[in-house]
Amino acid sequence: MIGLGLFFLLMVAGSSQFLLGQAETSSCPNLILSSHRWIGSDGKPLPFQTAEEIMDFLRTAEVVKVEKIPVGVTKPQKLYLEKDGVKAKASFRYKRIHKDRWNDPNAGPRVNFRDDCIYECAAYQLNRLLGLNNMPPTVNRKVKGKDGVVQLWIEDAMMDTDRLKKKILIPDTLRWVRQDQVMRLWNALVYNDDPNKGNILIDPDWNIWLIDHTRCFRTFADLLEAEKIKYCERGLWERLKRLDTEVVRAELDEYLSSNELQAVLKRRDLLVEHIQGLIDTRGEEAVLFHF
After folding, report:
1. Which residue ranges make up each domain of the chain?
2. What is the distance between the alpha carbons of residues 99 and 91, in angstroms, rounded to a whole number?
3. pLDDT over 90 for what percent of the chain?
4. 87/105 Cα distance (integer angstroms)
5. Does the domain spanning 94-137+156-289 belong to CATH 1.10.1070?
6. Where are the beta strands (DSSP E) in 95-212?
7. pLDDT in tens, 45-93
8. Measured on CA atoms in the order 140, 143, 146, 152, is the torsion positive or negative?
9. Would 80 disulfide with which of 65, 165, 167, 226, CB 3.0-4.6 Å?
C-alpha cells in the first residue's frame, strides 16, 4: 500500500483515473451514511430509525452520569444518557467565548474571535441539508443548569491523531482520499480555519466523522485552501448547486448571525464556481466521482 502523502501528490498531479476510475464498480457505501448503525453505551444497536428520533432522545433522555473528557481546549464533558431502557453516551459542550481581539497561539492575532458551542448545531443542520451525514446527531440542550450542545458519541471510534501515532495503515486508500476531498470542501464552506486531526473520528468501518466546529463560521467571503479541492462527489455537487438560500436561512437563523449566514452563502457560490471551473477545464468525468 502506498503512503497517503505519496498518493495525494499523485492525485494532485492529475492522476484522476486512479481516483475516479473505480466509481462504478466500488462496493463502498454511499456518501450518505443513512445505513450507519449507531451503537449505545451497552454495546447494543440503538433502536432509532431516523436522525429525528436520535435527536429527540438526546434532548429528552435522563443524564445519569457526567464525566470530564481529557482532551479539548473548552473542556467538553461526556454524558451517559438513558431513556426507556435505551442507553447511549454523548458529548456536551457549553462554552460560548467571544473576544474582540485574541492572540491565537497557533494562528496569530484574531479579530472578533468566537469559540461557540452553538456552531456545532449550525454545522449539523447544514451538513444534513447537503446530505452528507458525516457528523453525529447534534442538538442544543440544557444540562445541569448549563445551556449547551449535546452530540451523540461514536462508539469504538479512534481519532486520526491516534491513527497517525500508531502508524495504522488505511485499508482502502481510494475511499479515504475521496472522504478527504469531501472534508476539504466542507471545511471551506464552514470556514474551518482551525482544523485538528483530533476532531476527525474514524469508526470501525473507516468512515470519517467530523466533530468540533466551535471555531467555524467566520464572516470571511473566501475559500480556505481551494487549491486542494480537486474532486467532488456527484451527489454533493448537485446538492451544493441546489442549496436553497431561504431554506439555509430558515434552518440556521437560530444559530448564526446575518453576516455569518451571508458568508456561508457566498462561500457556497465560490465553491460552485470553483468546481465548475475544474469541470470546464478537465471534464466532468475527471472531476466528479461516486462513492
Report:
1. 94-137+156-289
2. 25
3. 76
4. 39
5. yes
6. 96-104, 108-116, 138-143, 146-152, 158-159, 200-202, 208-210
7. 999 999 999 999 999 999 999 999 987 677 899 999 999 999 999 999 9
8. negative
9. 65
Q: Measuring CA to CA, which residue among 245, 6, 36 is closest to residue 132?
A: 36
Cell of 78: 461526556
Give the per-residue pLDDT at 227: 97
CA torsion through residues 77, 201, 223, 251, sign: negative
C-alpha 21/C-alpha 51 separation (Å) is 33
**pLDDT for residue 193 is more than 80:** yes
Over the stretch 245-270, which tens digit does the pLDDT of each residue have? Answer: 999 999 999 999 999 999 999 999 99
CA 148/CA 127 separation, integer angstroms: 19
Which residue has 473528557 as its cell numbers? 69
Residues whose CB is less than 8 angstroms from the CB of residue 289 and which lie 6 or more positions away in sequence, other chains included: 19, 20, 23, 178, 231, 232, 233, 234
**φ/ψ bin of 75: left (φ > 0), alpha (ψ from -120 to 50), beta (otherwise):** left
